[in-house]
Design goal:
Layout lengths: L6 H4 L3 H4 L5 H4 L9 H4 L3 H19 L5 H7 L4 E3 L11 H4 L14 H20 L9 H25 L3 E2 L14 E2 L1 H18 L3 H4 L7 H15 L2 H12 L22 H6 L12 E5 L16 H5 L26 E2 L2 E2 L5 H4 L6 E3 L1 H6 L14 E2 L9 H5 L23 H4 L3 E2 H4 L16 E5 H14 L3 H14 L12 H12 L5 H15 L19 H9 L1 H4 L22 H6 L22 E3 L6 E3 L2
Antiparallel strand pairs: 1-7, 2-3, 4-10, 5-6, 8-9, 11-12
Helix pairs in contact: 5-8, 5-9, 8-9, 9-10, 9-12, 10-12, 12-13, 12-21, 13-21, 21-22, 21-23
Length: 628
């Protein structure tokens, strides 16, 4: 066996993330105390290697311009709201190209998902390949570690196959540069990761068994397996894997008050469920898989700030954008103790709401249209904020004796004149209960440190509801959707209400900024194309013309008014196109792969060089890739 180089752990698979490398970069470096032969000697050593995978998942949700924004703006729930510059993804057919800048906080993070997806594959594959080089207390300990590695690799491939379609399948450890990758069919990749996740769900331990919060658990494995089963069209298996969590006797939807604010009568269970200090409490039986972010954690980036309020809350604090009916600068995002024009701020709104910049701008579909039940706690006055809930707080208004000081914001004056000069970025409502994370280290809070849900039991119910829907068992589908709805105070649905649209609406109400929305929409689009099932919009779909006609595009154009009407922003018109259901493979990856062939997706330059993809075939060990 070749000696393993430390570079392999901490660098990318060269061809998948870079178009060139230097001989100097590839020179072996002296082995440290933490070299693989010193580290991969027991279960704890492999756990340390898998921390890199947990770190990458954290980076999906945390930080400025994080990748989850891209998942949302390529769907019906949000658009890119940064209107003050060129670059942000708005005119998708013109901007989303294989050789464009696909990994930048000022453009989009498509390239991040590609690059970091294969990073996770690499980290996990090192553990998988070396699993039997360590000593274990017993077979269960070995298989627990192996199952967690399978989870990370399978989650990466689940997302890659719904984001990009057919992609290279890399299973073994790569210890030297490789230039001969080949595209593999999405369907056979799903076969492989299903097999791996069935093993993982059998062997990975529960949180109760490990006593570790924030790591992969048996329930997380079943949850991911459910998504894979749905993607494959194995609906009975999806029901079984979801039911394994729902009926495990440990997890349940939270319906009773708990946590830091449980004695505050102005709050409710929805508020409790989403407060950062409550997400990883032992009494919270709804959580399945959380990412941890706390000041006291010292692992790589484990104290990273969420920046969630900066990303999703509107840019309300610009007085130039939100004027009073008297025509004056109306609001300030300065906290108490600050001065505006030399006058102290007396009404502090930034500490309560955060300083947003409207980057992940929710659509009217998400902030208004889906909230049809007046009793929905997720949209009540305690949990949801509309712009009219804010007040004119610029202290200069008070000094001038302006009567609008302290009054609620208005969009129009008495003559119908608009008072907000940028309604894209600075005027929309938001789920305060979910987006608020205290940020005491910042005078203009962006969103501080706090744990975040990746998988939660409410989604498990909605995944099982979807599986029942595909099987035409509408009563059981309604029962599962209603488990989530009634917890929020809503009236239950009947069977006549149930279709994929109502399930998507419930997911949008419940899972905003938790689910990777584009990934899930494309997964559903594939299912419609694979099954030929009649959609609520009266259409059927086919795999034969997926890039020209698919449910992802029809859903986005139906519900996202920005793309539907080609709304004008200062620098672009918002536009979408059907082929963007699958993102482009980065051109640098294709160009660097000189001894193999990676297909470009249809609709993008380079798609004309298509070759029949390879296929994964089951067999001993990891199976094998075969040319079709």
């Amino acid at each position: 066996m070749k000696k393993y180089n430390i570079i392999t752990i901490f660098t990318l698979i060269m061809v998948l993330v870079s178009s060139s490398c230097t001989e100097e970069f590839l020179e072996p470096k002296p082995l440290s105390f933490y070299a693989p032969e010193n580290t991969f000697v027991d279960a704890a050593g492999f756990d340390a290697a898998l921390i890199a995978c947990l770190r990458n998942i954290r980076h999906e949700f945390y930080g400025d311009g994080n990748p989850m924004i891209t998942e949302n703006i390529f769907s019906e729930v949000a658009v890119e709201g940064t209107t003050d510059k060129t670059g942000p993804a708005m005119d998708l057919p013109a901007q989303i190209l294989p050789d464009a800048n696909l990994d930048n906080t000022n453009t989009n993070r498509i390239g991040w998902y590609w690059k970091e997806g294969y990073k996770k594959v690499k980290y996990a594959s090192v553990v998988i390949a070396r699993i039997d080089q360590a000593e274990y207390a017993n077979e269960a300990e070995r298989n627990h570690v192996l199952g967690k590695a399978y989870f990370h690799r399978s989650r990466a491939y689940y997302m890659l196959t719904q984001q990009f379609g057919d992609v290279p399948l890399i299973l073994g450890e790569i210890s030297e540069p490789k230039l001969d990758f080949f595209t593999c069919t999405r369907e056979s990749i799903l076969e492989k990761i299903k097999k791996d996740m069935e093993f993982a769900a059998q062997w990975v331990k529960t949180e109760s068994e490990t006593g570790v919060v924030g790591d992969v658990t048996k329930a997380a494995c079943y949850h991911l397996l459910t998504k894979i089963n749905l993607a494959k069209g194995d609906f009975d298996d999806a029901i079984a894997s979801a039911s394994a969590i729902i009926n495990d006797g440990y997890h349940h939807l939270m319906t009773e008050r708990f946590g830091v604010d449980k004695d505050d009568p102005t709050k409710d269970i929805i508020w409790d469920l989403h407060q950062a200090p409550n997400k990883s409490l032992s009494e919270n039986k709804e959580r399945i898989f959380n990412i941890m972010s706390r000041e006291e954690l010292i692992e790589d980036d484990a104290s990273k700030r969420s920046s969630i309020m900066r990303q999703c809350v509107p840019f309300w604090g610009s007085g130039a954008k939100n004027k009073t009916p008297s025509g004056k600068s109306g609001v300030t995002d300065k906290p108490l103790g600050s001065k505006v024009g030399g006058i102290p701020v007396e009404i502090d709104q930034v500490t309560k709401y955060g300083r947003g910049i409207g980057r992940c701008r929710q659509t009217p579909y998400h902030h208004t249209d889906i909230w049809t039940d007046p009793n929905d706690m997720r949209h009540n006055e305690s949990n949801w904020v509309d712009m009219e809930d804010l007040v004119y707080n610029d202290p200069r208004l008070k000094a001038d004796g302006d009567p609008w000081y302290g009054q609620n914001l208005r969009l129009y004056d008495d003559n119908g004149g608009i008072l907000c000069t940028d309604t894209i970025r600075s005027w929309y409502g938001w789920p305060h209960y979910k987006l608020f994370i205290a940020d005491p280290t910042d005078a203009t809070p962006d969103g501080g440190r706090g744990d975040w849900y990746v998988y939660r039991l409410a989604e498990t119910y909605l995944l099982r509801a979807e599986a029942y829907f595909w099987k035409d068992d509408l009563q059981k589908a309604a029962d599962d959707v209603n488990a989530v709805r009634t917890r929020a105070g809503c009236a239950p649905f009947t069977t006549t209400d149930i279709n994929i649209g109502t399930i998507l609406d419930e997911r949008a109400r419940e899972l905003f900024y938790e689910e990777p929305r584009k990934t899930e929409l494309t997964r559903m689009a594939f299912i419609f194309a694979q099954t030929g099932k009649l959609c609520y919009n009266g259409k059927t779909y086919s795999m034969s013309n997926f890039s020209e006609d698919n449910f992802w595009y029809d859903r986005v154009m139906e519900k996202n008014i920005f793309y539907k009407t080609e709304a004008r922003a200062p620098h672009y018109n918002y536009r979408a196109a059907p082929w963007i259901a699958l993102w482009p493979i980065p051109a640098a990856t294709i160009n660097a792969n000189t001894q193999g062939h990676i297909n470009q997706n249809k609709g993008y330059p380079g798609a004309e060089n298509y070759q029949t993809p390879w296929k994964w075939v089951d067999g001993e060990g990891e199976g094998e890739l075969v040319e079709q």
